[in-house]
């Protein structure tokens, strides 16, 4: 009897403590997702970096959907991709009165892009949706319920249930439910939302191979350089929460699951655009090395075994391209090569600079013209 009373008393005490903490909102509940984190004067009506969304009935409206490539926080607003693409398309079709709108933020996967597009279409229209893919980041962003690094800011996340896209869990802007009391015991037993989710939804990760024979390189950064860029140890390559996982071979059960999820999200974006009467095009860019990509993980034209703190990982350019093809199967997709030699913003920021953005979007524009012409023809 004493034990029962003790258990009941403890339970009541914990419940009262939880109620008190909730009433005081201590600690403050986190909200899922994010928009542009910079100067609010540089945001459009939906909170993304870009000009005010404004167009007339006769304007041809292009939505540029993506992540940090679209946001381009290192560039001035005048040099954002929305402006550059608008200029290139406007020169080719001056009578179309083309307006380009930015939807996307740094760290976005296709899950948050899909939700942003749905929100846009609630009260706005588009004639063309252009999706700027970052394959190595997109798949990983889609797989996990938090932002970089491990167990960071909560975000919306989808999953496949019997092959059907389901979700989102933690919708954009909603308070993430949690017991406030966990703040105290998580100091000793931290929660692991990333690990719990990915192991339940996406299966086994890639296994490093310590004894793998072959030429071994040590070009992957273990630690941050000048504290301005993440090292691989922080990215949790062992759990595949890393853009470097995109080229690991043989492909793991987990990454194949992530590719299937990514394909389903891209199909959902395509279908959302078409249901609203818009044309759609997906594209991604790679550097000038045949088979390479704009990421240090893949700047090679052959298979490589890489060492990270004594663990060996085999990367393959063929696997990289197989993954890109697989996630984009049956979708209208363009591959644009970066031909600018000095393409990066800086040594610690590997996003495209002004010149490379202009070249990529200039080369993309002619591939969009048939879609624009078809859409314009349908108006008459």
Layout of SSEs?
Blueprint lengths: L1 H22 L36 E7 L1 H4 L9 H12 L5 E7 L5 H12 L6 E5 L2 H9 L13 E5 L2 E6 L12 H4 L7 H10 L13 E2 L14 H4 L17 H23 L3 E8 L17 E5 L2 E5 L1 H11 L5 E5 L6 E3 L2 E4 L1 H25 L2
Parallel strand pairs: 1-2, 1-3, 3-7, 6-8, 7-10
Antiparallel strand pairs: 4-5, 8-9, 11-12
Helix pairs in contact: 3-11, 4-9, 5-9, 7-9
Textual characterization of the structure:
The radius of gyration is 23 Å and the shape is globular. The protein has helices at residues 2-23, 68-71, 81-92, 110-121, 135-143, 182-185, 193-202, 232-235, 253-275, 317-327, 354-378; strands at 60-66, 98-104, 128-132, 157-161, 164-169, 216-217, 279-286, 304-308, 311-315, 333-337, 344-346, 349-352. The protein has 380 residues and is of the alpha/beta class. Helix content is 36%, strand content 16%. The strands form four sheets. It has a five-stranded parallel sheet. The protein has a three-stranded mixed sheet with strand order 6-8-9. A two-stranded antiparallel ribbon has the order 4-5. The chain has eleven helices and twelve strands. Helix 3 (81-92) packs across helix 11 and helix 5 crosses helix 9. A hairpin with a 2-residue loop joins strand 4 (157-161) and strand 5. The protein has one domain (31-378): 3-Layer(aba) Sandwich (Rossmann fold).
Question: In a nutshell, what does this entry contain?
Answer:
The chain is of the alpha/beta class.
Share of β-strand residues: 15-25%
The chain-level mean pLDDT equals 84
Assigned CATH class: Alpha Beta
Q: What's the β-strand tally?
A: 12
What would CATH call the homologous superfamily? SGNH hydrolase
The share of residues in helices is: 25-40%
**Spans where pLDDT lies below 50 across 5 or more residues:** 9-22, 288-301
Shape: globular
Helix count? Answer: 11
Counted up, domains total 1
């Amino acid at each position: 009897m004493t034990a029962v009373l003790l258990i009941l008393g403890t339970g009541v005490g914990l419940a009262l403590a939880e109620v008190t903490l909730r009433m005081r909102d201590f600690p403050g509940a986190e909200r899922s997702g994010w928009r542009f984190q910079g100067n609010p004067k540089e945001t459009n009506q939906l909170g993304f970096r870009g000009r005010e969304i404004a167009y007339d009935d006769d304007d041809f409206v292009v939505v540029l959907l993506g992540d940090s490539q679209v946001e381009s926080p290192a560039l001035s607003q005048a040099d954002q991709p929305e402006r550059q693409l608008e200029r290139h398309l406007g020169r080719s079709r001056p009578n179309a009165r083309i307006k380009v709108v930015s939807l996307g933020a740094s760290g976005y996967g296709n899950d948050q892009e899909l939700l942003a597009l749905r929100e846009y279409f609630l009260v706005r229209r588009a004639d063309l949706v252009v999706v700027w893919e970052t394959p190595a980041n997109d798949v990983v962003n889609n797989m996990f319920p938090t932002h970089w690094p491990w167990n960071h800011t909560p975000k919306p996340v989808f999953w496949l249930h019997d092959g059907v896209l389901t979700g989102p869990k933690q919708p954009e802007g909603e308070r993430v439910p949690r017991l406030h009391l966990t703040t105290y015991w998580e100091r000793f037993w931290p929660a692991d939302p990333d690990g719990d989710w990915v192991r339940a939804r996406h299966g086994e990760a890639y296994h490093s191979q310590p004894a793998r024979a072959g030429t071994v390189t040590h070009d992957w950064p273990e630690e941050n350089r000048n504290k301005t860029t993440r090292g691989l140890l922080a990215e949790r390559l062992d759990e595949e929460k890393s853009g470097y996982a995109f080229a690991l071979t043989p492909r793991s059960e987990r990454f194949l699951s992530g590719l299937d999820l990514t394909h389903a999200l891209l199909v959902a974006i395509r279908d959302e655009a078409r249901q609203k009467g818009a044309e759609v095009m997906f594209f991604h860019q790679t550097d000038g090395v045949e088979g390479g990509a704009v990421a240090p993980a893949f700047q090679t034209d052959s298979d490589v075994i890489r060492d990270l703190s004594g663990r060996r990982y085999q990367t393959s350019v063929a696997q990289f391209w197989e993954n890109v093809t697989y996630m984009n199967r049956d979708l209208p997709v363009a591959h644009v090569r970066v031909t600018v030699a000095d393409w990066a913003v800086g040594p610690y920021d590997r996003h495209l600079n002004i010149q490379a953005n202009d070249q990529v979007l200039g080369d993309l524009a002619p591939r969009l013209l048939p879609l624009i012409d078809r859409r314009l023809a349908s108006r008459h």
